[in-house]
Amino acid sequence: MTESTPTNLSYKFSTLQELVDLVPADRIKACMEELGTVMAAAKMSTELTWAVAKSLAEADGKELPPQPAQLLKLPTSFEWMDDGKRELTARMVDDTGNTFFSVTAK
Predict the structure, then answer these.
(1) Domain boundaries in the chain?
(2) Model pTM?
């Protein structure tokens, strides 16, 4: 099966089942590749932030509590734009939802 040209549509989903139900079969791989890239960047960013915070605390003679098991909290839904641009953005937000760090990959 050959991959079709991007359709410039967007798909909003909350589960992998919804992704499979909504995204055309020949576009699922592209969607998953982009999701994987943005999730990896988001996790690396949170791990880096944690490591810097730990290092700064130790330099100040303090100790952080153990790293939480869930360092990265994913949104309840995702929206994938099938535009072929592969522009990906991951945002770090505080407890109130305000963005304090954003990474965009092109």
Answers:
(1) 12-105
(2) 0.76
